[in-house]
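Q: A reviewer asked whether we had any structural model of the full assembly, not just the individual parts. We don't, so I'm hoping you can provide one. Inputs are below.
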Amino acid sequence: MQIFKIDEVLNFPYERLKLLFDTPVVIPTETVYGLAGVINNDNILNDIYQIKGRPSDNPLIVHISNLNMLKTLIKETISPEYTTLIKKYWPGPLTLIFKANDNVSSVVKGNHMDTIAVRMPNNIKLLKLIDKLNIPLAAPSANTSGQPSPTEINHVLNDLGNKVKTYIDDGKCPCGLESTIVSIQNNKITILRPGIITKEEIENCLQKEVNLYTKESNINYTIPGMKYTHYSPKIDVYLFIGKNYNNNMIKKAQNFKDKKIGIMGSNDIDICGFKYEEIFYMGETLIECASNCFAGLRHLEKKVDLIFVKGFPYINEGVALMDRLEKASSEIIE
Ligand code: TXA
Ligand code: MG
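A: Here is a predicted structure for the entire assembly that you could use as a starting point for your response.
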């Protein structure tokens, strides 16, 4: 196994770079680390599913560095709404769903979809790397399936270790949550997965109403990843929402007298009246807390037996943050 700094890799001659991408490679993005493969090699793409333990029906997001690459992947012309979103948010943490071109390998599409998820990541060095390779990279988050996504190279090493030959390191991922995924069907704009680019921002940008997909919403879209467990550390997470969180934590802690409890929440979290082992302060703003969310879960998982998290308001970036925390939790306490 080899770990490179991204600057080192950018200095490789083309032939060496190409050789490096003969197997799956861990890449940095502005959201989370990805496990990447060139989209024209099914063996590599299949290896990605295998290494992650990812169900084969869960399609991959394709990462591009310019709009010409997008045109090679899609069937349709780009809709006015997508054009507006692309102008405003690419490169950035926004994934768009298109009808896939017939040339796109079915492995990318989870072996059953006729659509393709595409994004242009906002990491200038990664964009240079994709440019140099001159081929899009399909990349799911570089965690073992079901685990919290990795926002530092050590998280990936912890999950995947020697299963991957090449790691490219570019420090901490600034967003810390995966991209917002948007789909348009029959003129209806839907956020399939909330992210740091919020519903409010997208509505503002398009001057149109946007739906947020939930299991309950009666929308005929599929986001195959939804049906699988997500973002869960190996220990139980209890999510406390509402004003009474401190009292509820005290009550809950009585069930776990001989266990080590870890706490996670924004810097202004108020916790008194019960014994805990370790506390992880996520930050002041919603954006800051979002960027530290997965790192916090991974940090506490190593130190304690169970985690109490103080929830966030369901507004702006809080929607994405709560989406991940709810999925990570074994119980939500109001
Ligand atoms: O920020 C991100 O999006 C990160 C970085 C690495 O780019 N990637 C990421 O990939 O989060 P992954 O595989 O962990 O999540 C992709 C999600 C899955 O839930 C998958 O089901 C969904 O996107 N997806 C992929 N292609 C799709 C499609 N054609 N239609 C609907 N959902 C799709
Ligand atoms: Mg993932």
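A: Points you may want to mention in the reply: Residues 26 and 114 are 26 Å apart (CA to CA). The radius of gyration is 20 Å.
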